[in-house]
Design brief:
Layout: E1 6-10, H1 17-25, E2 31-33, E3 37-38, E4 53-54, H2 57-65, E5 69-75, E6 78-83, H3 84-92, E7 96-100, H4 103-112, E8 117-122, H5 126-136, H6 141-155, E9 163-166, H7 170-185, H8 188-196
Helix pairs in contact: 1-7, 5-6
Length: 197
């Protein structure tokens, strides 16, 4: 059984990451979606171990001190992070792990694990990103402008990623991500290991 790999998927708000990931996971049992740990309280309908691993601040601090997180950040008074143990367990079972995290978190992960594959999902155009954010109907025009400004800043860091996928159609974006994942498993170091066993 081959060892799984870790793939980071990042992209600005409104780019369609959730939709792309939903399609990517359809009918697949060889993928594991990394669930973050958080110190915030569960919202209505959220389940521990499904939406997040809900833990208290003391436990989170212990994870930081034990270097048991691949990345973490504080956001609006709560901590969020990626526990190593679930990622490692899935990879040891031969599953590829998908981390849906921000650019800063991606940089932290790659400092600890340089072999992590980074994929940035971008919109086909700024007009389309603005249209998608507006059509969601969840944000004020002011908030949409803030999200667009943040998206421009995130896009300027995209050159630290290994791959760049433009989400002009969900099917094409999923096809490209699948192709990237297959290619990553075809590298000589991985294949030679199989032959030598």
């Amino acid at each position: 059984m081959h060892q799984g790999k870790t793939f980071i998927i990042s992209g600005p708000s409104g780019v369609g990451k959730s939709t792309v990931l939903h399609e990517l996971f359809k009918g697949r049992d060889d993928l594991y979606f990394s669930i973050s740990a958080t110190t915030r309280e569960p919202r209505e309908g959220e389940e521990d171990g499904v939406h997040y691993h809900f833990i208290d601040v003391k436990h989170f601090q212990e994870l930081i001190e034990a270097d048991a997180l691949l990345e973490y950040a504080e956001y609006v008074g709560n901590f969020y992070g990626t526990p190593k143990k679930y990622v490692d367990k899935a990879m040891n079972e031969g599953k590829d792990v998908i981390l849906d995290i921000e650019v800063q978190g991606a940089l932290q992960v790659c400092t600890k694990r340089p072999e992590t594959v980074r994929i940035f999902i971008a919109p086909p155009s700024w007009d389309e990103l603005e249209r998608r954010l507006t059509s969601r109907g969840t944000d004020s025009p002011d908030k949409i402008q803030k999200r667009l400004l943040r998206a421009k800043a995130e896009l300027q860091t995209a050159d630290v990623y290994d791959y760049f996928v433009i989400n002009d159609s969900v099917e094409r974006a999923v096809r490209e991500i699948n192709a990237i994942m297959i290619a990553e498993h075809c590298k000589p170091a991985d294949r030679m290991k199989i032959l030598s066993e």
